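Memo subject: From amino acid sequence to discrete backbone structure tokens
Action wanted: Derive the backbone structure tokens from the amino acid sequence.
How to read it: Take the token row as a discrete description of the fold.
Attached in line: The record itself begins immediately under this heading.
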Amino acid sequence: MRRSWQFVQTVLGIIFRHPVTGTTVVPILPDGRIVLVRRRDTGEWGLPGGIVNWGEDIPSAARRELAEETGLDLVGIRRLVGVYSAPDRDPRLHSICVLLAADVRGNLQAEDTLEVSDVRAFLPADLPLGKLCHDHDRQLQDYLNGLTVLA
């Protein structure tokens, strides 16, 4: 029995002491506006995204999260903006985030209303920079500056 418990503790340690992989998207509408979501838990604006599910690749996770949080379809990935891995980038847990810029289309309508309270498209000049959740200010600024980063 004790050996079984040690095994379970070891497995849990391996699982929970490793970063979680996620993706965020800079969704760009045909008219150049960028779509952000308002998080229900904090009330802050941020980029749509989330955790990559087991058996899912990053483009599929980005497509799924975008649809769930904004109602939009991912038309095409423009570029990889960066990979963000600082242990304190998300206050909830250590996560590694892959940021993609993508062309999108459709009607703004959050399907996941437990996580998202509002979806809105902003002209680049009107983005609420300085007030975004997690490290999304940095992520969006890196996109706007044309950077590709590993942080």
